[in-house]
Amino acid sequence: MTMEWITQSSEVLISDRWIHLRKERVTTGRGTVLDPYYVLSYPDWAVTVAITAEDELVMVRQYRHGTASVSLELPGGCIDPGDRSPLEGALRELREETGYGGGEAHYFGSLAANPALQTNRIHVAAITGAVVVAKAELEPGEDLSVELVPLAQALEIVQQGGMEQSMHVAALYQALARLGRLGLK
């Protein structure tokens, strides 16, 4: 039987609006002491699988400094304290990054971002019948382009390794499965 770990001590090493890092001394369920064990706390994130009436997936292409690469992703970002729900946060991020909205909105729950080290979750939303409803309003650190990718082609891109953000890949498959769009019997 797997047992929970016991935290013996915890020290905050850094805390700002983007990250909260703590160093802990923990004892595992089997009695092993891990010191230090680092835990990262981030705000929860949200992504939206937005599909137009023409069966195109609304995607963004942007530079990601952590991997020093340009990445094709789903629109998304941090859930803000003012968002009344994860769905509202996901739809706000979609509108801000792409200008898309409208249609029928769905919320499909959340996934653990990296449960071994991180406390946050990524919330998965979808819109069917997405249309342009506003002009995109990018944040200062955002420099992205919006791409409409035929849904079948988007899945090929994933299968060929052209979409590397693993949480977005999982969110895409989760949303498409819940929408009945994967063709599985």
SSE blueprint:
Blueprint: E1 6-15, E2 20-27, E3 33-41, E4 45-52, E5 56-64, E6 69-73, E7 76-78, H1 86-98, E8 100-101, E9 104-112, E10 121-132, E11 144-150, H2 151-159, H3 166-178
Count of discrete structural domains = 2
Structural class, by secondary structure, is alpha+beta
Q: Could you list the spans in which at least 5 consecutive residues all have pLDDT below 50?
A: none
| Average pLDDT taken over every residue | 94
**Helix percentage range:** 10-25%
CATH architecture of the largest domain: Alpha-Beta Complex
Beta-strand portion reads 35-45%
- Work out the oligomeric state of the chains in this entry: single chain
Which sheet architecture does the biggest sheet show? 5 strands, mixed
Following the backbone from N to C, one meets helices and strands in this order, namely: EEEEEEEHEEEEHH
Question: How does this model look, in words?
Answer:
With 185 residues, the chain is of the alpha+beta class. It folds into 2 domains: 6-41, no CATH class; 45-178, Nucleoside Triphosphate Pyrophosphohydrolase, CATH 3.90.79. 19% of the residues lie in helices and 44% in strands. It is built from 3 helices and 11 strands; from the N terminus they run βββββββαββββαα. It has helices spanning 86-98, 151-159, 166-178, and strands at 6-15, 20-27, 33-41, 45-52, 56-64, 69-73, 76-78, 100-101, 104-112, 121-132, 144-150. The strands form 3 sheets. Strands 4, 7, 8, 9 and 10 form a 5-stranded mixed sheet that branches. β2 (20-27) and β3 form a beta hairpin. The mean pLDDT is 94.
